[in-house]
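CO-FOLDING WORKSHEET

Operator: S.A.
Ligand of interest: pyridoxal-5'-phosphate
Run index: 371
Mode: holo prediction, single chain
Checklist:
[x] sequence pasted
[x] SMILES validated
[ ] output reviewed
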Amino acid sequence: MENKLNEIEDVLLMGPGPSCVPESVYAALSRKTLGHMDPLFIEIMDEVKKLLLVVMQTQNRMTIPISGTGSAGMETCFVNLVEKDDPVLILINGVFGKRMQDVASRLGARVDALEFEWGTPVLLDRVEEKLKSSHYRILAVVHAETSTGVKNPVEEIGRMLQGKDTFYLVDAVTSLGGIRVATDEWGVDALYSGSQKCLSCPPGLSPVSFSNRALEAVLGRKTKVPNWYLDLSLLTQYWGGKSRVYHHTAPINMIYALYQSLLLIVEEGFENVCRRHQDCHRRLVQGLEALGLAMLVSPDHRLPMLNSLFIPEGADDAGVRRRLRNEYKIEIGAGLGPLAGKIWRIGLMGHTARPENVDRVLGALKEILGR
Ligand SMILES: *Cc1c(COP(=O)(O)O)cnc(C)c1O
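OUTPUT RECEIVED:
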């Protein structure tokens, strides 16, 4: 029988995730599967937790990878913190803010949304106004809005919440491992990420961190967490403490892979990792502008790991992406929602963020667009 796996070729992943996976992470995935209660595996779990504390810049003891992709991390944060009729404020300027609104609404929260134009950041004075007029149990925002390439002012919003009893919930799926995420310093109570963006692991795990006061709130809920699989009060008995209690079978090999990818970041040094993303971003923007292409986001609010550019007049959106994929073996991302057909998204996430990759995509675009 034919095996489709034999058709897989090396594709340079320059879309909005997944990103390129380093060889040592593939090697980690193919190590022998241990049992989920095996003493060595439990030591590996402990190492993963320690590395996450470093990368997330936190001391939160509830810091674990959730079994599932970034959206599972989003669900985990909301399902554990929201009780019915809780007032929740969500700041929206792209697809993932919208997704938060949907997730929180399904849990019976009273969701208030502040919306901002896609491609622009959350505006602080509007948030401040809103916080003056109403009290919220949770405020949620996306740090790196992957659908547009905008960086939101997460640190400044955290400052506004200082001294308030509002829980601060932050999506760091795309930001973690590419730009600074200072969970404790910014006063974040619930933070989630994903393995396949700047951590450069395949998709499948979502690192999550809860502050002590957020964890206390979860343990003191009036009603049970309505989702058994993502209930942190149960997960903590498997991931923490001396005697581990089986909850669900951990995705063992994915945890090996996350372990290896976190080690790579710590070994390279976080400052160096950030600088590499920034340098590649600068090189890409310069190259695109030299080709006469224009960026969506204004320079002050650009993410290094997700670069949105306007599709030039006359270019065939899907046709160009198809040629990139088929002839040049490069994947880039399309626009989403109101930006569909208007922008392309070039990811420089994690292992993908290398000058030779930037030059490769620039060279390919130059040829395809005939510039
Ligand atoms: C990719 C992404 C998600 C969703 O993650 P999945 O792994 O696709 O479930 C959530 N938020 C942001 C900002 C993302 O970029």
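REVIEW:
Residues 17, 69-71, 96, 142, 144, 146, 171, 173-174, 194, 203 surround pyridoxal-5'-phosphate (CB under 6 Å).
The longest strand covers residues 62-67.
[x] output reviewed
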